[in-house]
Please model this.
Amino acid sequence: MATLREIRGRITGVKNTQKITKAMKMVAAAKLRRAQDAIMSTRPYARKLGELLRHLVTEVEPGINPLLTPREVKKVALVVVTADRGLCGAFNGNIIKAAVNHVQEQYASFMEVDHGLRLVTVGKKGFDYFNKRDYELYSKHVGIFHGLDFSRAREIIHELTEGYLSGEFDKVVVIYNEFKSVIQQRIIIEQLLPIPPEETAQTDDLKSLAQVEYIYEPSSKEIINALVPRHLNFQMWRILLESNAAEQGARMAAMDNATENAKELISDLTLSFNKARQASITKELLEIVSGAEALKKAG
Model:
């Protein structure tokens, strides 16, 4: 049985841990509010930008822009967006597991070919995992979520578009966590390059948009060529913001659970401490009574 000193030390240690997890929960909550504001203001612009691009594509000839033109897929780049830090529950584990499963289901044959499948890791946790295993890394982007900036999204897109245009890969797929709520994130796998024709283009809203005739200046082609890089930059920016908000939500929930678990553990340890203390006091009383009885008999 643990001594009173050992139990008291454990209680002190758990209380200190509880203070840390509670503070981390508060920090994550503050970051989450800012991240939520950023993603909620970004989504409408990203959606309208995509609608405008899809409308323009219907007005011009196919193949007007190489980033819009599909080709035979022989090489694939998979962008895996994780966090730079842990202590956020299953956030990183789920996205890594989903990426591994997606590779096994869709691109297992590509891994048998030189440069057939290459990974672009965004976030330190993804890099640490895939760098130690049998995956070919094309590039890594770590530390970008500390002071997240739009320039980092442009940097990633520039690297991907250069690789796509030069033939380094024929398709770019990104996998990330989409923010749904504080306690819920959804893993999204979507094609980034070539820019795919969206299924949502068949909705009533976009059908009505397509029926509207616009006059574009200087021309549809020039606007598309200017809009495509802007669209890609902003989609990557949205993905980074989604992942950041989802990470903060996951960390807030994980630290809240850790704080509650620490509270329960402190309660259990306190009960054990009181039982041990009671047993110690009872033992001392028995020793005193036994000593007194021995003195009586001796006198």
The chain has two domains: 4-22+255-287, 25-197+204-251. Confidence is low (pLDDT under 50) at residues 199-204.
